[in-house]
Amino acid sequence: MANTSDQPDDVLIVALAARDLGALAALYDRYGRLAYALAYRILGEGEAAEDVVHDAYISAWRGAASYRRERGNVRGWLMSIVHHRAVDVLRRKTTFRPAPLEAAAERAAADDTAEAAERNVEHQTVRAALEGLPQAQRRTIELAYFGGYTHVELAELMGVPLGTVKGRMRIGLQKLRRALELQGTHREQSR
Amino acid sequence: MTHVTDELELYALGALTPMDRARVTAHLSECPACREQARAIDEVVQELPETLPGRETPGRLRDRILASARAELVAAGASRRDPRTPWTARVLRPALAVAVVMWLAVGAAAVVNENLSLSSQLRAVAAERAYYEAIVEGIRQGGRWWYMAGKDDWTGSGGTLIAPRAEGRPPFVVFHDLPALPQGQLYTIWLVSSDNTWVRGANFRPDGKGVQAVDVTAPIAGFDRCAVTIENSAWGRRAGPVVMESRIVAPAPQ
């Protein structure tokens, strides 16, 4: 591979399956920051986030051959691994769980303002689409995805029926999809 | 077949319990219609990390990931040479720092002294160095550890039981200078509880290296001693002599 870091994701994932360390390094350079931000947002603690990202990348290294293009792009596949691992760790370490809604909302608010200037247009666009949702839908989605709450826990925390939690997620994600499509940032399935 | 369309948002957001998640995963593996819907929802959910502010990654993280992957490559090669030994026992699980440093000081020279061509010598040194880099990397990851000094004929050998800090990683023991055993005998790592119950943690034979890492299959929580014996059987109760042991001290409460 002439210059690994310039290769598209689909090429890198094939190289990864062939045990190419350069491909692993390139995928880390490309998505490591996003992976760490996600793990940190879920766990709220640097060392645990680092361990999760490490384990996720090694898992990808071992399982690259199982990647299926038709099920999503490489970035989404990697983030999915990071997300699952981070939520697993969070659920095992119950002391990490934020005190219900207030603490989670405070943490989200702090993240809202941090380093905003560094975000590129794409980040801002996705963020704007999420912020455009009604608060109840947005909060339900954020607490599930970033807070690691199950739908049963969310129903209890928010004092609403399970069906309401499911409905908020469904409608919220549908609106998010439409907003992203309108804004033209919904990604192609490959870089 | 009961479809799972009602749960796909929960699935994509990670809001199902592990049991429900497994059930949905199983269904998706055999239902193209639900799988297509799940993929469409995943596309949206996978944008959520993009809403987060950028965060600098720890500088060491990249090196740590590459060191682990590199160690697996070396281990895979080692396993091909000796399929009897699990790769985890040959490589990844890190180690006793002193032994590593000692080996790094003298080991390379020992390898070069073998009757190999120059290129073979260099390759061998590089492989061995990667092996021990992986061990050093493991030490850097931290955790708790206890050293066991060899007794009697095993004086001069020893092992460090390491409980890694990282979630999901098994405890392991890094031995140094283990004597070879006669055919039919093996080393056994035991975890011993306060009521003197002995639980077999691993069986292994020395691989001839200066330093050897062996995973312990049982968690160490609830045990207050670790011991290594020489056994004639890979199962059953302890019968052989203890050649090294250590107390396992629980961490002080915070």
Terminal CA distance of chain A reads 18 Å
Instruction: Categorize the overall geometry of chain A.
Output: globular
Number of strands of chain B: 8
Trace the largest sheet of chain B across and list its strands.
Answer: 5-4-7-8-1-2-3-6
CATH superfamily annotation of the largest domain in chain A: RNA polymerase sigma factor, region 2, helix turn helix motif
Name some characteristics of this structure.
heterodimer, A: 191 residues, mainly alpha, Rna Polymerase Sigma Factor, Chain: A, Arc Repressor Mutant, subunit A, 71% helix, B: 254 residues, alpha+beta, 2 domains
Write a structural description:
The complex is a heterodimer of chains A (191) and B (254). Chain A has 191 residues and is mainly α. Chain A folds into 2 domains: 1-97, RNA polymerase sigma factor, region 2, helix turn helix motif (Rna Polymerase Sigma Factor, Chain: A, Orthogonal Bundle); 98-191, Orthogonal Bundle (Arc Repressor Mutant, subunit A), CATH 1.10.10. Helices cover 71% and strands 0% of the residues of chain A. Chain A contains 9 helices and no strands. The longest helix of chain A is centred in the N-terminal third of the chain and has 23 residues, at 21-43. Chain B has 254 residues and is of the alpha+beta class. Chain B has 2 domains: 5-51, no CATH class; 60-247, no CATH class. Chain B contains 7 helices and 8 strands. Chain B has helices at residues 8-13, 18-28, 32-45, 59-81, 87-90, 97-112, 118-140; strands at 143-150, 158-164, 172-176, 186-192, 198-204, 211-215, 225-231, 242-247. An 8-stranded antiparallel sheet of chain B has the order 5-4-7-8-1-2-3-6. In chain B, helix 4 packs across helix 7 (118-140) and helix 6 runs antiparallel to helix 7 (118-140). The radius of gyration of chain B is 23 Å and the shape is elongated. Residues 81-116 of chain B have low confidence and may be disordered.
